[in-house]
Amino acid sequence: MTEEQEKASRAFLKEKVDAANVPIFLTSKADIVEYYRDTRGARWKQDIIHDMMGITGKKYATIEKRFDKQRLDAPERKNAGEYKELGEKLPPIGHRPPANGYKVSFTIDFKFSEKCGWIRTKTITISGPDARSFAEDPDIFTVALTYFEGEEEYEDICAVLAVDVWAA
Known about the structure:
Elements: H1 3-20, E1 22-24, H2 29-40, H3 44-56, H4 60-64, H5 80-89, E2 94-96, E3 102-112, E4 115-126, H6 129-136, H7 140-148, E5 156-167
Antiparallel strand pairs: 1-2, 3-4, 3-5
Helix pairs in contact: 2-3, 3-5
C-alpha cells in the first residue's frame, strides 16, 4: 500500500469515526454567554435574546432581564433546560466516543507468501480506554494487525478494501 493510499484510508476512517462520535454541547448560561460574546461581538446580547425567544416563546423584554449586568452571572437553575436546548443548537465544543464504544467492520487484503490476495473480514467492538485512543487516532492498520494477530502469519497489508464504523 502506498503512502498516499494509507493517508486517504486514514482520512476516510477519521470521517467514519467522527460520524459515530457523540457531540458535546455547551449547557450552562455562563458558557453560552461567553460563546455569544466571543462569536457575535457587540450584538451578542441581541442575538442570544432572539435565540432564547425562539426556545422559550417569551417576549424580548422578559428574556432581556436575564442578561442585565446584575443578573448576568446568576446560574438560573430553573431555566437550565432552556440553556441546554440553546447549547444544542450551537456548534459542538467537542466529541466523545459512544457510551458502548465503536463497532468496526473491515476487510483487509493481506500479503502472505509474498503475494496479496489473502482477504479477511472482521467486525469487532472497541470500547473503554481503547475507544478513546481509537477516537483520537483512528488507525485501521493497528486495529487490523491487533485483531488478526496470531491467526496466520502474514507479511504486510496490501490494501484496506472496506471499513465501516458505527456506535456499538
